[in-house]
Write a structure and sequence with these properties.
By secondary structure, chain A is an alpha+beta fold. Chain A is about 25% helix and about 35% strand. Helices cover about 80% and strands about 0% of the residues of chain B. The radius of gyration of chain B is 22 Å and the shape is globular. Classes of the chains: A alpha+beta (about 350), B mainly alpha (about 270), C mainly alpha (about 300).
């Protein structure tokens, strides 16, 4: 089912949570809504579900205007941030709930068979008789997903699906959710504040800030072509260097980078730590190492430029450096935005 | 056990134990001792006399009816206070505690004044052929009045704390209001409802002040058990008073036990492991 | 364009159902709770101000008021001290029998006041354990102020403790342990660390305890002997006047206690705004939602 949002607006009391967001999600696509807290991502998800009503704009499911369809008739599967499992029902009863209350009557045997299938799908065979209080967080998350899938939703919506889990459980569940999505091909929209999660899982990432979409695209597009300092900074660690642009070249320190299409004048270069190098001699920004942090896959250097800015560099483990060393930081690649 | 860091346990525990022993344990033990010293046959004769049995019957049935009424009204009241916003809501919320705060004797004469045949409500009900004052119905009304807060105040906070996501989840799965209420909300409130109901019922069984004004106090028909114990005292029949009071005491303990068991059962799903 | 701030309906939000339920609850509340309060005032003033004033100024009524206030002045502070001590012992320490002690403290809450009164007779009455000894020593407990105070303390035993225990349990022991580790004495710790955190809950318990002491009827009526002008508390005096067919006098006396009840309710609301009462208390719902760490 294709979903289309057309200039959707939502205001809570005086706080404008969503400002005219337009978005299309293709049938079978897996899309992440990524943004910091307060960016309106959960509100958008809840409006798609029908758990909030939009104040303005339209939401279409396929060609049907779904803006005012109540949640119970909208045919969405919603996985809540803290799962919202019914604590007084067993895992199997939780999964069966949607089928039991459905207008479409199913026999007990049918429901039991479907519950067994879903338990197998989410790899929880044998846990059907447990209560939610008796299983782990990761297992609860999978029950919540099975429960949402039980009603054959047209759209699957997940609110911070891995937010409450430990880092290692999170990674496993992420891969597993991707597999399930590939198997079932349900249009899926999920909300996260974790860029790694969004990039790892989604076909397309929609980045939000202050209730507006700032950029959307495939993980490759948003990673390689971030369109603003915000997106650049939100997707990973960034260094910011002041530069002067003239004639399509940005001068930083005693080095220069090509800056096609950037107007002459003051600009800022945003560089990932791994796109900076450390040399003892050569062209670059003169700097002094403040600290060296060793990591399994390399070293991170904290260095202060002679302008007083602190830079972070990720370098190969064999690079020799220690606090107090003086040298030069060179920029391998960076994104240049006019200062503003 | 960890070494105690804070001071004051001997003093605090000392005060507590002395108070509890003198004020609570000693009198109740004296009552039990007095009742036990009767001997089984005498005890049985007193507690199973026709008048005593009739008093149990009217007390228990009235308490049951009052609790049933409060279950419906108290639940509706808690629901309205938690789920809806309307002018006067906070005022009603405060008023719920009036039966706690109003001395029972005052409640008794006020309810009697209202429901007596010449009272505001009694005269209207009288025309419909319903007599409240000086009948078991009057006992029921007095019990319902005094025990209402128990039901409202145990259901209300739980209803307030119900995670709204549970209801949203049920809605997103297609549940109708009726099925969500029956399958999700009501089961989650059950422990609180049971607690409130047993507290209200226990309170009704032991209520005295509010009832004696409105009940009529006729032996075999409108005489509650607590009053019978009181009457035996006034007749200087201390043994009988002890025996009947012990029945009330045992019932209270049974109710406490039942409350705890019911709650433990209703909460069994939170057990881990 | 849709209207602003529309919320999707929750269970029971259909306008018709909502209105009907609110209306039904308001009507029953008016009949069941408001009317009894109103009728007290109406009856008290049914024969005019003069009769009301005379009824209140009656020496027996004044004496009943005095006795009730005296009882409260003795019973409430003792009860408060007990409640604080019990809460301190139960929440700040682990000891054998702690849970059992909690149950025992709550017992008076579920026992008929008549049972309490009868039980006291068998301790201090002539038929009781200490009765003969007390009589020969010429100490009067029953049918006198001490008996009234003791019975009042029984029925209100849990009132202060049950407000403090859940709150102090939730607050834990860290602050007190920090204070003692910094060298504060036990009393100092209590007065400068514990008390400021529990003062509203404490006051809340005291207010409820006071209301119950002043209004207690059943237990006191057994142990007081109902001697007019001597051992009649205000609630007992109301009964006496009522059975003497002095309805206006009975309701005049009742109106004093009704005012006390209203004052108690107002105090309760004000204290709840400061976090006392059920606001600060964990509910059964705490056990119901699956525990989860919030991100």
């Amino acid at each position: 089912m294709k979903i289309r949002l057309d200039t959707v607006v939502k205001t809570f009391d005086t706080f404008r949570a969503v400002h005219g967001v337009s978005l299309e999600i293709e049938s079978g696509e897996l899309v992440a809504l990524l943004g910091p807290s307060g960016s309106g991502k959960t509100t958008i998800l809840r409006m798609v579900a029908g758990l909030e009503y939009a104040d303005g704009g339209k939401i279409y499911f396929g060609d049907e205007d779904a803006t005012d369809i109540p949640v119970r008739d909208r045919g969405v599967g919603f996985v809540f941030q803290h799962y919202a499992l019914f604590p007084h029902m067993t895992v199997a009863e939780n999964i069966a709930f949607g089928m039991k209350v459905s207008k479409v009557k199913r026999s007990k045997a049918e429901i039991a068979a479907r519950v067994a299938d879903l338990l197998r799908l989410v790899k929880l065979d044998g846990l059907g008789e447990r209560f939610p209080g008796q299983i782990s967080g990761g297992q609860r998350q999978r029950v919540a997903l099975a429960r949402a899938l039980a009603v054959d939703p047209k759209v699957l919506l997940l609110d911070e699906p891995f937010g409450a889990l430990d880092a290692n459980v999170r990674r496993d569940l992420r891969r597993w959710l991707r597999e399930i999505h590939e198997e079932l091909a349900i249009t899926t929209l999920f909300v996260t504040h974790d860029q790694e999660e969004a990039l790892d899982l989604a076909d397309r990432v929609v980045i939000l800030k202050d209730g507006k979409i700032v950029q959307q695209g495939t993980p490759e597009e948003v990673c390689r072509e971030p369109n603003s300092p915000f997106v650049m900074g939100f997707l990973g660690d960034t260094n910011r260097l002041p530069a002067n642009v003239s004639g399509g070249r940005a001068v930083v320190g005693n080095a220069a980078l090509p800056a096609p299409g950037v107007a002459d004048g003051k600009a800022e270069i945003f560089v990932r730590p791994s796109d900076l190098d450390w040399t003892e001699h050569g062209d670059g920004v003169p700097a002094k190492i403040l600290r060296v942090i060793d990591r399994p896959d390399g070293r991170r250097l904290l260095a202060a430029t002679d302008q007083g800015e602190t830079l972070e560099l990720d370098v190969a483990p064999e690079i020799q450096a220690k606090a107090g060393d003086e040298g030069f930081v060179t920029v391998r690649r960076g994104r240049i935005f006019a200062a503003g | 056990m960890a070494r105690r860091v804070l001071p004051g346990l001997p003093l605090a525990l000392g005060i507590t134990l002395v108070y509890v022993s003198i004020i609570v344990v000693l009198p109740l033990s004296a009552l039990v001792y007095k009742a036990a010293s009767l001997g089984f046959e005498d005890y049985w004769r007193i507690v199973s006399s026709g008048r005593a049995l009739a008093s149990y019957r009217v007390t228990a049935l009235s308490a049951l009816a009052a609790t049933a009424f409060n279950l419906v009204f108290g639940f509706a009241l808690a629901w309205v206070l938690v789920r809806y916003r309307f002018p006067g809501r906070r005022f009603i919320d405060a008023l719920v505690d009036l039966p706690f705060a109003l001395p029972t004797a005052v409640a008794g004469i006020a309810l009697t004044a209202l429901f007596a045949p010449n009272g505001w409500f009694g005269s209207i009900l009288g025309e419909a052929g319903i007599t409240v004052a000086y009948t078991p119905l009057g006992i029921m009304i007095a019990m319902a009045f005094t025990s209402l807060p128990f039901i409202v105040r145990t259901i209300q906070p739980v209803l307030e704390d119900l995670d709204p996501a549970l209801e949203e989840a049920a809605q997103s799965l297609g549940g109708s209001d009726a099925s969500i209420f029956a399958r999700v909300i009501l089961p989650l409130l059950t422990p609180a409802i049971l607690a409130g109901v047993s507290l209200a019922f226990a309170r009704s069984l032991g209520e005295f002040g509010a009832i004696i004004f409105i009940a009529g106090n006729q032996p075999f028909s409108t005489e509650i058990t607590a009053l019978l114990a009181f009457i035996r005292l006034e007749e200087y029949d201390y043994q009988a008073a002890a025996a009947i009071a012990s029945v009330l005491l045992i019932t209270a303990f049974l109710m406490l036990a039942v409350t705890n068991i019911l709650q433990a059962r209703a909460l069994r799903y939170t057990a881990r492991g | 364009m849709a209207s602003k701030n529309r919320k999707p309906p929750r269970v029971g939000d259909q306008p018709g159902f909502r209105r009907a339920l609110i209306a039904a609850v308001l009507v029953v509340t008016a009949i069941f709770i408001v009317a009894p309060l109103v009728v007290i005032g109406v009856q008290a003033f049914s024969q005019g101000w003069a009769v009301y004033a005379t009824a209140i100024a009656d020496p027996d009524t004044l004496h009943a008021i005095l006795l009730t206030v005296t009882t409260a002045l003795i019973a409430v502070p003792i009860n408060t001290a007990f409640g604080v001590a019990a809460a301190w012992a139960i929440t700040k320490f682990d000891f054998w029998g702690r849970r059992f002690l909690l149950v025992v403290i709550e017992i008076p809450f579920s026992i008929s006041p008549i049972v309490a009164g009868v039980a006291y007779l068998f301790v201090y009455g002539l038929q009781g354990l200490f009765g003969p000894a007390l009589q020969s020593a010429d100490i009067k407990i029953l049918f006198a102020l001490p008996g009234i105070v003791l019975a009042s303390m029984f029925v209100t035993a849990p009132f202060v403790a049950r407000e403090l225990i859940p709150l102090m349990q939730a607050q834990g022991r860290d602050l007190e342990e920090a204070a003692t580790s910094l060298g504060a004495s036990g009393w100092r710790t209590f007065f400068s660390v514990t008390l400021p955190n529990i003062r509203w809950a404490l006051l809340y318990g005291v207010v409820l305890c006071n209301a119950r002491v002043m209004g207690e009827f059943g237990a006191v009526s057994v142990v007081s002997g109902n001697i007019r002008g001597q051992t009649n508390t205000l609630p007992l005096h109301i009964e006496l006047l009522y059975h003497d067919y002095q309805t206006a006098g009975a309701f005049a006396a009742a109106s004093i206690l009704a005012v006390l009840a209203v004052v108690t309710l107002v105090a309760k609301v004000l204290l709840e705004r400061r976090g006392a009462g059920r606001g600060g208390r964990p509910t059964l719902a705490a056990n119901q939602t699956v525990p989860e760490t919030t991100t």
